Amino acid sequence: MDSLDYGIIGNCRSAALISKTGSVDWCCLPEFDSPSVFAKLLDEEIGGSFEFLVDEKYTIEQRYEPRTCILITTFTDGDNCFEVHDFMPRYHKEDGSYVAPPEFIRYIRLVEGKPKFKVRYDPKLEYAQGETKSYIKKDFIASLTHEIKFDTVFLYTSFDKEAVLYGKEISLTEDGFFLMGYNEKIFPTTTNKAYLELESTKVYWLNWSARTPIYKKFNEEISRSALTLKLLSYDKTGAVLAAATTSLPETIGEVRNWDYRFCWIRDASMVIKVVSELGHKNIARRYLKFIIDLIPDKAEKLQIMYGINKEKKLTEETLEHLSGYKGSKPVRIGNAAYHQKQNDIYGILMDVIYEQMVKFSVDIENGEDLWSITKGIVWIVGNHWHEADKGIWEFRTEDRHFTFSKVLCWTALDRAIKVAEMLGKHHKIEKWKPLREEIWNDIYENAWNEEVGAYTQSYGSKHLDASVLLMESYGCVDASDERYKSTVRAIGKELSNDGLLYRYKNEDDFGLPSSSFTVCTFWYVNSLFKIGEHDQALELFEKLLGYSNHLGLFSEDLDFKTKRLLGNFPQAYSHLALIECAVNFSKKDSNEDIKESMRA
């Protein structure tokens, strides 16, 4: 497999990645950030997988059930055919709560003939540390390990358990199922029950998708991206993950391998803004509750990221026994970036708070908590905006005065003032306006480089940075501003490489980046669109969409030459920016249609 040709299934508790040949190559249970049960993704020899092996005459195709997160892999040799419907159960109970157990189901549907297959069932618990042994019991196959710590998983199936465990050939004569879960089941599991779970989960996703508006252009891409973002949300606390994986490298064979199974305030806030604009309010309410729970002390500074269960300490360590994706070591769990200082997170969070208060009105649940957080953010920004930080790209060495960080400090004040206006807090408005103006003047004077003809990465620098494109999105400058237009064109000229953008081209802690950070190209598309370069923006956007995998999914990075997907997968950043671009193009077309009909 040359690229990240995977589909994702999940239930907002955990997720699994399934290859285009139907192999479960990554799954952590019981939750997203738990140790892996299957990790072939990170070590093809010892990682563990759950596969279907068929004769070479079979062709294999894969798709999602439309508007759902049910993945269908079809195996056919012309005369014999079966489908594997993979999903993690998620649906409403009668009391309105959710069923979302730590398990996945593989429903096997007989389509025609009498297909034959073998199963490779090879769980490797606790990141494949130590030995995992499997035993056939009366009702299930139990797999356990106790060398590192004790852990077990259970496989229920309608097929002969011995044939499954020992890879013997199975002839399919009727529908069947596999259910692999973290917990032993209390009630018997049958094919009919598995089918009911499948249909209940299908109804849940169809209902969820029905709340996403239908767009004239790129509707499929918007829908799939929205579903993917939903899969990266964690219901229990409201956290939103940056991605479902760890240690997928930005470049094959290099060391930029990070664990992304955490909640970055920046990424999550951007996701929430986009998804709530599509009409999904519950995900926004849960996330705001997550934030409120994290800030018990009014003067407490936000970390840039947290564990999905609100953990504040995310100690980074390496798993030396795993060879890494395509041999790219090290494999890391935890993330040392949690203690970094990044001043932009306050503006991004304040932007989400403002957006939600507009949408839900001032009667929003926890409104008083959010007003307290607003005041606290202004206090922190007021005391620290002039300080250097690590910036959006998390430079691990020196702190700098990054333009993006300053822009988001301005955003924090701007949105706080707007919230104060909504609440009639006039004394705060008058107090905060001079600070907003002071930050803006500082950016205008120090971030602009006359020689380069652009706002640059940091004060006094000649280096360009794709994050500066977001100045317009946050309202710090207008799209008609000549400085902004000049910045967009300079970034396109300097950072573009065969239609893909570098984040920046100056060397960082690990040398010169050698892959494109996918979200940056989407930002550039959006910026071209905003300054009126619609045709160029659309051409670039459609080209970029062609670089997704076979299911329309994007990772964090793209290889400049091969366009291969790289980095953690699927990446929330990439999909939220895709939605923003697609909605802009769709709205433009709809507006032009309205104008045309009015003229007619």
From TrEMBL:
Tagged with keyword Hydrolase: yes
EC number: 3.2.1.-
Biological process annotations from GO: carbohydrate metabolic process
Record-annotated Trehalase-like N-terminal domain positions: 8-138
Domain named GH15-like: residues: 219-582
One GO MF term attached to the UniProt entry: hydrolase activity, hydrolyzing O-glycosyl compounds
Keywords: Glycosidase, Hydrolase
One Pfam family it belongs to: TREH_N
Coiled coil feature spans: none
Entries under Gene3D superfamilies matching the protein: 1.50.10.10
Protein name: Glycoside hydrolase, family GH15
